[in-house]
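Researcher: Good morning. I'm working through a list of sequences from a screen, and I'd like to move beyond sequence-only analysis. For each chain I'm collecting a predicted structure so we can compare shapes side by side. This is the next one on the list. No need for commentary yet; just the structure.
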Amino acid sequence: MAAAWGVLAGAGHGAPAGRPAGPIWHAEVHEEGLLIDARVPLELPTPLHDALLRGVALTFVWQAELRRPRWYWTDQVLLSARRTVRLTHQPLTQRWRLSVADGVGGDEHGAALQRVLDTLEEALALVRSSQRWRIPLAQPLRGDEQLLLAFQLDTGRLPRPLQWLPGLEGGSTLAWRAVLPASALRDGEPLPEGRP
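Model: Good morning. Structure tokens for this chain:
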């Protein structure tokens, strides 16, 4: 029996034309663990787009962390998972290679999936969405937990000159974060918009 954890949607109210809408986060609790579906807007700045065409790989990271608050110490981390998405351009074939690796507890050497795509738009559509991401739960939930979800460009894996490009320090289109409290999600209360 699946319990819906809820949806966090930044619907882009009042967003200027041409700007992407906000992120959409959805998580459910199943017998086998958490099931996360998410979609974020993603626009590559021109310098990153040019670097990608020249063979520089871009690595994006999806993160999920379930925490239980403790009054006497720091929050207890119940689970921590990462999904790493690496995008590269193959100049000889003019195609795009996308590799996805899941890891739990800091291990990034979990299951991997690779795809070759014809266009950058197809590749970015897969980068900006995480569908049916299953994360096992080691223990049942009490209801006071918080699920932290994040998506960002891993600038540490870029070549050193690209790490200081203008707009990468706090690029709102390259990093999204949300905190989903278990109690509010189960009750269906409205949630705050995800903040970049």
